[in-house]
Design a protein that fits this description.
The structure is a single chain. The protein is an alpha+beta fold and 209 residues long. It has four helices and ten strands. The chain has helices at residues 12-37, 68-73, 118-123, 172-182, and strands at residues 58-64, 77-82, 88-91, 99-101, 114-116, 133-136, 147-154, 189-190, 195-200, 203-208. Strands 1-7-3-5 form a four-stranded antiparallel β-sheet. Strand 8 (189-190) and strand 9 (195-200) form a beta hairpin.
């Protein structure tokens, strides 16, 4: 495991406390509620997400210092519509609005959310849907500020099969590594004016322009 930079070392205890809070106080109750919604034992998803388990769950601090020229080049969209790879994504509130989700009526409001990801959609057999979302240029009165995202990305432990009813389903780490390695490199098939598709371990992954 790679060590953190020296400048970051003094903050590791605080970061661990913040990480454990996300994991036990926010993520665990949500996973219990999702299990109950499927009429499964409450610990069903908890057993896949132990804090000390080998997984790619992590806290990320993502800075978006975009200029006006960058916004114009990207047609005001910084990250096009997608669903996250993992189980859940916990996004902490900030003063600059840029995250949007695609609602059933087709609207894309500025919001603050906990997203369901691909893995939970697979594990629930499609009962829970991955949330399509994107990052776009903030409103005009906020465009002079950098945007800092504080995000807790939740993924299952290594080796968890993403379907209960199939022995051919990819594991969580196979799906994550496949999507990560192919991002920006694999051929996308245009489905319509908005949606492009790529196939990952036999699973269609959609991208929204």
């Amino acid at each position: 495991m790679q060590d953190h930079p020296a400048a970051f070392q003094p903050f590791l205890p605080e970061l661990r406390e913040f990480t454990e809070y996300n994991h036990h106080k926010i993520m665990f109750p949500i996973l219990q509620i999702l299990a109950r919604g499927l009429e499964l034992p409450e610990e069903t998803f908890l057993d896949m997400h132990g804090f000390e388990d080998d997984s790619a769950t992590d806290v990320r601090f993502m800075n978006y210092p975009h200029s006006e020229n960058d916004g114009q080049k990207a047609r005001t969209v910084w990250l096009k519509g997608h669903t996250d790879i993992g189980t859940l994504t916990i996004l902490w509130s900030q003063s600059v609005s840029a995250l949007q989700i695609l609602c059933p009526d087709g609207n894309l409001p500025f919001v603050q959310v906990v997203n369901i990801g691909d893995s939970m959609e697979f594990l629930s057999g499609g009962f829970y849907k991955g949330i399509v979302h994107r990052v776009r240029q903030p409103p005009a009165d906020q465009q002079g500020y950098d945007r800092l995202g504080v995000i807790y990305f939740v993924l299952e432990k290594v080796g968890v099969a993403l379907r209960f009813d199939s022995d051919k389903a990819p594991t969580s780490d196979e799906y994550r590594k496949g999507c990560t390695a192919a991002y920006g490199l694999s051929q996308l098939t245009k489905k319509d004016d908005v949606v492009e598709e790529q196939i990952m371990h036999g699973v269609p992954v959609l991208h929204y322009n």
